[in-house]
Batch of 2 targets.
Target 1
Amino acid sequence: MVNAQKKIKQTAGRDQLGDFAPKFAELNDDVLFGEVWSRTDKLGLRDRSMVTITALVSSGITDSSLTYHLQTAKKNGITRTEIAEILTQVGFYAGWPKAWAAFRLAKDVWAEESADTDGKAEFEREMIFPIGKPNDAFAQYFIGQSYLAPLSSEQVGIHNVTFEPRCRNNWHIHHASKGGGQILVCVAGTGWYQEWGKPARMLRPGDVVNIPAGVKHWHGATADSWFAHLAVEVPGEGASNEWLEAVSDKEYDKLQEEKR
């Protein structure tokens, strides 16, 4: 996996200590976060969160700073199951009371996932890639909830796209004057892929779909399963996406009936 370097912007030092300790604030915001945390081409944010949490708990630091880094770890893709394993491991080496204190904070941070009853947490445990954040930027082009986890922006763009049951994107076309298109690599669950004028194809883990530029298509989850695929952007000249009409419930439900 290739991690694109991402600049981390932090202002907590200046916000809280700027007048009292300006140099410390500068080192915190510009060096620790602006330089060290931003070296994501060397070590990804997810791994940096694991290292930082381990260091803080081992040092017995279970105050607001640990809460902040637990929240950051969740944003960086660490799941409830993973943080439980991390803190259990740390407990054996750093001390049981420290792990207990950390668990009290982690339980609150991951409270929403703990109350999850729709299978999201269970599905996330099925695959090696994180589900990521709600795909809000493209929500208007989807029916249902999808999630997006950027994996690489160097050489080729790769994203893990996750669909809740019944979620699907609109018909769309990847345009390019030369090259372009997209490759889907299915990693978990079951889904649908359909090109305009052709029968829909059911997708399972391990399936690969090659989508040339100019082909009208859609893809998404089946009604009874979460679904995730890697979306690989094929380099091309003049590349763009054209979003079209939604896949109606009538069209979608017909596929579900045929599946039975």
Target 2
Amino acid sequence: MVDVTKPIVNPRLSEALAALHRENTPANQDRALRELMTQAHLLAPVVLTPAPSPAVSGQTTLEQNTAIQFQLISSQEGRPFFPAFTNWGELRKLCGPRDQQTLVLTFDDYASMLQRDSRAAGFVVDPFGDSLTLDRETVARLARQKAEGTPPVRQAIQKDTRVMLGDPAEYPERMVEAICSAARELPAIKALYLRLMVREGEMEPSYLVVVDQEGEQDTVFSAIAGAARPWLEGKTVDLVPRSSRFGQDASKGVSPFYDRI
């Protein structure tokens, strides 16, 4: 529950967006998306008809038949997006000093709005600052992953887990390209291998990426996870180090899809 008597601020999301604009890496993308999807409360400019009565103790009660019209802004290509603002300073870049009616919304609220309203191409956070634009397909995919309650990226295979391994019938080219792009920025990654895996007790297969690397595993795995996440299309990817017995067995006889030369 949002305390409407306090100013709306999202320092963690603002910091993540600033980091993303300084360096557009998969790890920074993943950090910004996680903050947006799980923690952020955003200001949405609206027009309320009839206008609500003056706030009492910081809270405004809407009449039962109040009509809510959400504002849209256009991208440089002329596509309409719902704007979302992390704080009042960012909102003032849109409305200036005049009073602006607002509602406080979450990622889930914007995802629901996009399902109901076909006008918008998506929504954009802080469009006049360190912006993050999500089209409706991306929002729907992220919302689906969140609702399923299963992480799209898993970074461990439990001991004694029984699996079947094979090669993907449909090669995930966009995911592989994104992972390779991230790997080129990380000298610690020596090679990457792709398999298709079915765990015992699970019906749906997942992608398995075996990572041959040096140095800190968390940084490398986070970058690969961030790169893969937007292209999973409802699937899951498991990450394992090649130094593990499972990683050695899974990559045996398989050519890497990425090899640092």
